Amino acid sequence: MIPTECNRSSACWPSRSECRRSTRIRCTWVPERLSAPVVKDAGIILLAPLYAQWWTTDERRQPSAPTKFLLGLIGISVAFLCFLALTGQEGATISPFAIVGILFVFTVAELFVAPVQLSVATRLAPSHFQTQTVGLMFLSIALGSSLGGIAGKSYSATNESSYFSALGLVALVGAFVFAFTIPWIKRTVEENAGS
Q: pTM value?
């Protein structure tokens, strides 16, 4: 099916010339206001009850909070590496379903981290520094967002394969380093719970 007109507001077609050359169906079914945060937030709303049910039904088998963080880091790495399958494509050929699928992987990874981060921050801190530790946690989130913006500036269509590889590998190295801190985190949480 060859489209006969191009919807200028659609992110699927950057120019009319591509519209005329393409044999793919344009994705005008995707609403203009449907963006990555909307898809990700909808995924969180739909998946959070399943995670809560999973973690509360059998408390003996649920992973510890540091293990959940580790699984979240591995999930982020996998999500960035999933983008490699979409690199190098010419024109507007990326399926919205592929993007939604990758956002689903990000959402699953985030659900391992987000529900427990405040709890871990307060349990990891000494009793008289809990508020400051929570503030430090929020500061680290702000720093991560800033670094993400800086990393985003280095993206271009010519280097997308190396860009997503680097992000995926950095997350994987972070997970590897974090895995070595899990015994220390568990020991510190137990010591702080005893005091």
A: 0.73
